[in-house]
Specification:
11-stranded mixed beta sheet; 29% strand; alpha+beta; 8-stranded mixed beta sheet; 35 strands; flat
């Protein structure tokens, strides 16, 4: 795995779960105490110089003060007051304000005053997701000119620090600030978020506040609270382990190891005695690994040359009685990208992230005099994968400071891809459950927003069948925090990968369909189609300017109520017409057109069975497309743009593409 964003995020993996959890749990009380002899600020860090507050709705202002203290708030001629609770937290509400500024926010409690300057009132947007939301302006198209020409004091940017946690945090663990757009500040900011605001401001002439909370490689489960995930009923066991992890990480890891083992044993095709983590002789086709270890794609093994999936690693180490009696930490080099690790048959750790090593504290009494077995399962989903080498990079670090290297030779075993993808440890940073919600969404508080942008899904394609429910849960969860009816603007996954030569099932296409369905069911959710602006060779397409334009158009329709089609032609229905199937499209601007041929390509007619889809000849007629193919008379469904990186050529007259879809054929 070589996503630069994921490698950057991996440096922040959650290795010290107990310490982080305790800090998070203590945050509200600690916020009322003096730090270094100085009391903490009265205002939450979201309220700082250059901030943007949401217009046209009551403004929540919050922070911490001595318990029981009366807090007075003044802003733009409005006043409010609140009383700090027993934990020091307070929240006041100012009347709704029109766009404008700059203003000064003044907060007083007792003999203390905090003044925040250059505050604007406008529309505030939360931009979240994985690496395609995180991708910075300097990596976008024409970056040099974009950076040099940036300068807009009425667009303000706020970057949430990349932090994960196992419990919700009340405050950021790093310094944060609002920054007006200029050629220095915009360079590292989210390109999709910035270009969206720049485009939207052409039509909605108000200040824009942008909050970027994104993490490369992250799954949607990490951005959703534990309470919301529990409503789905699929994650209770993992969330129970996560709760235990906050109090006793070592014990919880052992519990998780048992759950992981249950998953393995339940796989079809896994024998009852196939327990790769066990001590002693184990079943399976084990082979000697190269001494240098490292990316398995470079071992010269044909089976692994382009392999994305799981590989087991196994080694043993001899300890004498004095060594075995000590406390110990297992030290591993980086594992690309997710490991699950056992010592003497007991789970001791699991971490997401390709760029940093692992250190797992071992429970007392686990080591033994004589032979000890270390087993590491490594899952890789993208490019290079494997356990870093050489063997000397891995060791047991004993309590007396000595290290016992794991250089006695490693063996490996490749897992057949059909066994599926294992569950992710719930405390993992970007691949866990609620970890990024806890560390990056919860610290924002209940800050006023106009809407949220969501660009994510690549890391969930392997579980596309769950994605619709997960996206609904996230939408409901964020509305609970930021306000009922919060608009959600979803970027549909762009094209990526080899172009198809025949109809086939596609995880990416299925996830796009889930995104389409969830957006279609809710008038406050919009979909930006990106199927034509991806890059088949790069999972991080750089044309974020066009993406920003499309997101702004969706916002104008969904958020501001403009009567314009939000995102190109939308398939409304498919019906049988003799020996043809006719698809009718809504939201068509200036008619439909086909690029590069008399009729559009990318349509398929399918029966009920898997593997029954066939490419169809398509003919345009006003807002309809007539499809013909062998067996069209008995087709039960129609698909369009159905591949990881499909070739599809249907657009409207304004240049917006028809998005991917699957529809049933009605009589």
């Amino acid at each position: 795995m070589s996503r630069s964003a994921s490698r950057a995020g991996a440096a922040r993996v959650l290795l010290a779960g107990i310490a982080l959890s305790c800090a998070a749990l203590a945050a509200p009380a600690a916020a009322t105490d003096a730090v270094g002899g100085e009391p903490p600020p009265l205002l939450h860090p979201m309220f700082d110089d250059h901030a943007v507050l949401q217009r046209d709705s009551p403004v929540r202002v919050y922070g911490v003060a001595p318990a029981g203290e009366t807090v007075r708030v003044e802003f733009a001629g409005r006043r409010a007051r609140a009383r700090a609770g027993g934990d020091g937290r307070w929240e006041a509400e100012l009347p709704a304000l029109a766009a404008g500024g700059p203003h000064t926010l003044l907060v007083t409690a007792g003999n203390r005053t905090q003044r925040v300057s250059d505050v604007l009132v406008g529309d505030v947007w939360l931009c979240s997701g994985q690496s395609n939301m995180e991708l910075q302006v300097w990596r976008a198209l024409d970056a040099r000119a974009e950076i040099a020409g940036a300068g807009n004091d009425r667009i303000r940017m706020f970057t949430v620090p990349q932090v994960s946690d196992v419990v919700p945090k009340a405050h950021f663990s790093e310094a944060v600030e609002w920054q007006p757009v200029n050629s220095e500040t915009v360079r590292e900011f989210s390109a999709a978020c910035y270009f969206f605001a720049r485009e939207l401001q052409k039509q909605v002439d108000v200040p824009m506040g942008l909050i970027d909370a994104s993490w490369g490689g992250s799954r949607i489960q990490a951005w959703t609270s534990g309470e919301a995930l529990r409503t789905l009923g699929d994650y209770d066991a993992e969330l129970d382990v996560l709760g235990r992890y906050a109090d006793d990480a070592v014990a919880a890891v052992g519990d998780w190891g048992a759950l992981w083992q249950d998953w393995w044993s339940a796989r079809e095709g896994v024998d009852a005695d196939d327990r790769p983590w066990a001590t002693g002789d184990v079943a399976g086709p084990w082979r000697d690994a190269p001494a240098q270890l490292g990316a398995w794609e470079r071992w010269g093994v044909r089976e692994l040359a382009e392999f994305n999936g799981m590989v087991w690693y196994r080694t043993t180490v001899e300890l004498d009685a004095a060594q075995a009696a000590q406390g110990a930490t297992l030290v591993l080099g980086p594992a690309d990208e997710i490991d699950m690790t056992w010592v003497n048959g007991r789970g001791v750790g699991s971490t997401y992230g390709a760029g940093s090593g692992r250190e797992y504290a071992l429970p007392a009494g686990l080591l033994r005099a004589g032979e000890n077995t270390i087993v590491v399962n490594v899952l890789d989903t993208y490019r290079d994968g494997g356990l870093a080498g050489p063997a000397s990079a891995h060791a047991l670090r004993l309590a007396d400071g000595s290290q016992v290297p794991l250089d006695g030779g490693w063996r490996y075993r490749v897992v057949p891809p059909e066994l599926g993808t294992p569950p992710r440890a719930p405390w993992q940073s970007a691949a866990g459950l609620s970890t990024l919600y806890n560390g990056m969404i919860a610290p924002i508080g209940r800050y006023g927003l106009r809407g949220a942008l969501w660009y994510q899904g690549e890391s969930n394609t392997f579980e596309h069948d769950r994605y619709a429910d997960l996206l609904r849960a996230l939408r409901s969860d964020w509305r609970d925090r930021f306000g009922d009816g919060l608009p959600l603007l979803v970027v549909q996954l762009a094209n990526y990968g080899a172009a198809p030569t025949a109809p086939a099932d596609s995880d990416w296409a299925s996830l796009r369909e889930a995104q389409r369905a969830v957006a279609a069911e809710d008038p406050r959710t919009g979909l930006a189609v990106a199927i034509d602006i991806g890059d088949r060779y790069d999972i991080h397409p750089t044309n974020k300017q066009e993406l920003g334009r499309r997101l702004a158009r969706v916002a104008r329709h969904v958020v501001y109520g403009e009567p314009l089609p939000p995102s190109g032609p939308v398939a409304a229905a498919a019906s049988r017409n003799g020996h043809a199937v006719v698809v009718r499209f809504d939201d068509v601007s200036d008619g439909v057109v086909a690029y590069g041929a008399d009729g559009p390509i990318g349509f398929e007619l399918c029966g009920a069975d898997a593997g029954s889809c066939r490419y169809a000849q398509a003919e345009l007629s006003n807002d309809r497309v007539a499809l013909r193919a062998p067996g069209a008379g008995v087709a039960t469904r129609v698909r369009y743009c159905w591949a990881d990186s499909p070739v599809c050529t249907l657009f409207d007259g304004t240049g917006l593409p028809a998005g991917p879809f699957e529809l049933p054929v009605t009589p």
